[in-house]
Design a protein that fits this description.
It contains eleven helices and ten strands. The protein is an alpha/beta fold. Strands 4-3-1-2-9-10 form a six-stranded parallel beta sheet, sandwiched between helices. A four-stranded parallel beta sheet has the order 6-5-7-8, sandwiched between helices.
């Protein structure tokens, strides 16, 4: 048994979609969430910058004595997983569990991947998917506007700006005939209804946050790191920019009110 918290970081607040899933399946675990809101998005940065940011994020979580670190960030998981090589705790990114879920879901062997420019350029999802099934046909699409649109709260099914962006991004996915589409950034589930409307019935959307939460649970149980608490976990939230609007924005991702205080911290 291990009562230390689970550490989670993301470039912004999208990783809260992972936290939401984890709270559901592991309700007694403590969670420390760090959102680098002062430097979001990571997906348009260079590899060197992303690696630097990831190391700083990991160091912050280690200072909170976490028992595992989850990069609930598609960009870090794709571009900079090497930053976890020397960590003293287990590390989990979103790419492997999400790719596995997509391979299990597809029926026609055609998979689409939506991600930040850095995620798509890295080819990480392609490599992981083809490790699992060499016969797959994969279509990757850079979606640079999705993160800022979600962070601005433009997530309603009838938000025309987001609809127009999604229609443009999804053209090649539709042309390729993909029956399974990976939402390769933890921000994207908040606009899943828009994406699903455009893709139409019969296309399965795979959430990076959901797949990763189940993999995190599996690792913790396999290694005997579960908490022995039975009364529910506690949650701590840290950001690098103004925390004033955190509660309203976090509510979009968590789909519940946030009663805990949020702290602003400096990293780097």
């Amino acid at each position: 048994m291990d009562n230390r918290p689970i550490g989670v970081f993301d470039s912004g607040l999208g990783g809260l979609t992972f936290v939401k899933e984890l709270k559901t399946i592991m309700p007694n675990e403590d969670i420390v969430f760090f959102g680098d809101t002062g430097r979001v998005p990571y997906g348009t940065r260079s590899r060197e910058t992303i690696e630097m940011y990831a190391r700083q994020d990991e160091e912050f979580l280690l200072s909170k004595d976490v028992k595992i670190i989850v990069a609930a960030c598609g960009t870090v998981s794709s571009v900079a997983p090497n930053t976890a090589d020397d960590l003293p705790v287990d590390f989990l990114g979103v790419v492997k569990p999400t790719a596995k879920a997509a391979v299990n879901a597809t029926k026609n062997g055609k998979i689409g991947v939506l991600g930040t420019p850095a995620t798509i350029k890295s080819g990480a999802y392609n490599k992981e998917l083809l490790k699992l099934d060499r016969t797959l046909s994969i279509t990757g699409v850079e979606c640079p506007l999705f993160v800022p649109l979600v962070e601005e709260g433009l997530i309603n099914r009838d938000d025309q700006i987001t609809i127009l962006a999604a229609e443009r991004y999804l053209k090649s996915i539709i042309s390729a005939g993909a029956d399974t589409v990976i939402l390769g950034c933890t921000h994207y589930p908040l606009i899943a209804s828009i994406i699903g409307d455009i893709l139409g019935e019969g296309v399965t959307l795979i959430s990076a946050g959901g797949a990763t939460a189940h993999e995190c649970k599996s690792i913790i149980e396999q290694k005997g790191l579960q908490t022995d608490r039975t009364t529910g976990g506690s949650y701590s939230y840290y950001v690098t920019d103004r925390p004033e609007n955190f509660a309203n924005t976090a509510k979009l991702f968590l789909q519940e009110e946030v009663s805990e205080a949020v702290s602003r911290v400096h990293v780097g």
